[in-house]
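Below: protein 1.
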Amino acid sequence: MSYEKRYQFWLNQKDLDPNLLEELIQLNEEQIEEVFYNDLSFGTGGLRGLMGVGTNRVNVYTIRKATLGFANYLLKNSKTSGVAIAYDNRHYSKEFAKEAAMVLAAKGIKSYLYQSLRPTPMLSFAVRYFKASGGIMITASHNPKTYNGYKAYDETGAQLNPLDAEQVIEEISKIDNPFEIDYVDNDFITYIDEQFDQIYLEEVEKISILDVEKKVKIVYSPLHGTGGPIIPAFLKSKGYDVYPYAPQMIVDPAFSNTLSSNPEEADAYIETIRYAKEIHAEIVMVTDPDADRLGIAVKHENQYELLSGNQTAVIELYYILSQKKKKGILPKKGFVYKTNVTSDLIEVIAKSYSMTVETTLTGFKFIGEKAEKNLDKGTYVFGAEESYGSLVSDFVRDKDAVQAVYLLAEIGNYCKMNQMTLVDYLNEIYKQYGYYYEYTKSITLLGLSGLEKINQLMSYYRKNPPKIKGKKLLSYDDIEYGIHVENGVEKELDYPKSNVLKYYYEDHTWIVFRPSGTEPKMKIYFGTKGKSMDEAMSFIQILSEQIKLEIESL
């Protein structure tokens, strides 16, 4: 069906939501094409997009359609033991969660629906606890306030892998009319109340390695999101001196008291760092709206330094391995997981402690899937990706910022007890293993023209690997074709096919080109190892500028 026909079809619906109808009537021709040219698709984070009217937007009808497709997939595969559902602070998240539960109820599928907003990792935990067949998280993670989304989970508590997602997409594509989907409010919907929080937090408590006097002072913000009802009270119950930043503790879909809902952006820390200066706190911790990602700022030499997701993960992993070894509790056969855009230093540290390292594509669902497959082969030790997400203990199968906050509070306290900062601790790691530095460049390309530009860039770099002065190209991965090429010899990759390119050069230098699966962005990842951090950073800055100019000229 053409976008014009889709538009007319929606316009002719007698019971169309009044707000969406008003928006529909006001669309110009270009906007009509933009919101109806396609259906929202599953990416690395599931279904995610701008809220509004149309098939290419998140609204009550696309939520119902996605849920019916998911329900039909579950029924077809005899997965009928229920679905856990949670949601974040965004506009309509609570309503969308209830709509999903009612669509499942109409199909005779039980749901376990959180009564109030809760973090994504608690959704993953609920799937496993209730032995459900799947899960739904209504969230757009760290995206701007105009977005919402829908993450679908399998029975292990991990996000759907590509093969399962394809089956769900196939079921969704069979649904011609999103306005004829049945939904009912009945006893198939079971509500999860706040008493369930403690069951989850009792598992979080177990990740602690050193239980000593707490001296570190922490400022915390949930950025108006789901971490607020859980994290500060938990830290206080464990003896930590934590100061929630009150203006951002308010559940607010407009994100009124922060310039950014993304811990990867410096704007997300402006107010909390100002507050930390007032009370002389050592650490600022910020979780994204669905509390699966954690960002931190550290007071070091009277300045607050932001740590990258790679740096935070390196600190977590080194602490876990070194402290468990000291206590004699390091598993003999342990697994550490990272993605192919995460720091090489993760692998270097893990192997120095005789851990097995598994590398996956971007997206924590791949780490969750690998962890499930390796259950009988050894012990899960740690998993991380560069985009501020980690998982300390796999009683959850997704990124877990609640666990990350708890572990990093312990590491921050350990540092203070030893008269150092987290930055000092990180520098000690660099001195031991080398100066690894990573940087991500995101290029936003909106709409149809943006999609065409992204495809053009991927096609260009597939044929023209970047040339780096003084560093020889050693090999490359073309994950779309499933091959690793070295010295002209092709080797099959153990990755699902994805439009991703990775080029490997001398000195642990690499570049990855990857269209984002959840945002209209082209992401370019850089990594290298230098003789000093200044050298490594300077090199990546020059390389990033080179690629930027190259792209502008195309």
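Below: protein 2.
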Amino acid sequence: MEAFEKLGINDEILKGLSSLGFTEPTPVQKEVIPRMLEKQTDLVCLAQTGTGKTAAFGIPLIQLIDPKKKHTQGLVLCPTRELCMQVARDIDAYSKHISGLKILSVYGGSPIDQQIRSLRKGVQIVVATPGRLKDLLNRRAANLSQINFVVFDEADEMLQMGFQDDLTAILENTPKEKSTLLFSATMPAEVSAISRKYMNKPLELTVGTKNAGAENVCHEFYMVQVRNRYPALKRIVDNSPDIYSIVFCRTRRECNDVASKLIHDGYNADALHGDLSQAQRDHVMSKFRCRNLQILVATDVAARGLDVSDLTHVINYNLPDEIASYTHRSGRTGRAGRAGISIAIVSNKERYRIKSIERKIQKKFKQCQVPSGAEICKKQMLNLMDEVTKVKVDYQQIEPLYAEIESKLQHLERGDLIKHFVSLQFNKFLEYYKNAPDLNVSSREPDGRDRKQNDSRATMRPNQKFTTFQLNVGRRQGIMPQGIIGKINEIENVGRIKIGQIDILRNSARLEADSRYTTQILNAFRQSEINGKDVSIEVVQAIPASNKKYSGKRKPFKHHKSRKPKNY
């Protein structure tokens, strides 16, 4: 604990850290803790998920709180119920040997009356989700007038989830004289705006590289036809016998579909999405944490705040619309010094998105080949053999039965016995992968389709018409032209669809596209979800020609200077 002592932490907290097995502070803890203890200044800390941020702000927070005063002195805001509960548990554990200190987590999905009673008894630190805290403020059940410290944990996720108005309302209930600490994995424009508006000349710390992925994570992608995403997912899972993974999907519908297929095919899997009740969500997460589930299929919003430290893989069944979301996804593996793998299953049309992510996270993806049936069967068999050699034999229990077992098997030669054993375990497996086709797609041809056919789709006839569509999402939800184009490019069996003008407003977006594919475009977006919001789309009157940004041949969308895009 000598390294923690040097940071200026008091003896009571050191006892708590020692009982939790803390030995060496992480880089973010080394940067943040002494600065908070020496001078209560505003601070913006950019660090990836899983780097020890909770201890970085939690340890100095409890040391600076006066447990003799019953009013609320510290506030930690979190994007989700799960993260809120986890942060409160961690801070409570750090303060185990500090008498009189009360910590309360408040969040939706739990009885508000009970939370109100706890607040009235007096708590020094409140850990809250923005929505529930705003509700408590409206009921005059929470009092933030004497707050000394406000911490935004995973600020970028809170803003992506649409909590900006709630955060503004909460901060207006806090005193001007306070220390504000903002922790985020990325620094989009909205987070920067919060720091400018509500913080006083904050010190900015960057632990690692902005937007960079965790150091222990290897990034891989598999290129397949869209219709082969699920078969490719199965092969990736089967080729990793000890996999413990979250599979990320874009929408609740897709999440349910993939989880149902995995369960039907015999995998220990379940779904986590916004349609689940809190009791159902808790039940699924309890099974996943104790490894009764091997695979959790989740949407981005549902998975936010999950605290599972030993994932072997994160699998992007579909890439997210925002690169920041990919960073959050991949950051859920490779924690606590362990190695992790982040996998993307992509079509040829999405190849450009891999390049965009590489530029942002400053790491290269490795293109991998979807394993063949023979490769998977070999991997599974060798894994079984390893398990057989490691199994502990209870000779005392086996001995009374051994003579009868030996008599039953004595007609088999050693080689035949091994073959019978393998067949018993693998007949169904071997049959499934017998003559399994190659799922890989060449990067030179779009999804394996003939190039001439694809090019002819992209050529507009002189009399070709555009249809104008309107979406219920815009800049506030983080939508960008690249995301709209990418979504249209994913539509199966139509080749490249001609796109005209794209106009993105604050809460809506309009686009023009080839009228021949109106039905396919409507269906594609109606099944979508962006940052937790279900997308609706409708055909509307065409945008006046005088307002058009671009038309004719498809070319990169250019914003006006007044519409400078966010980091993407």
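The mean pLDDT is 82.
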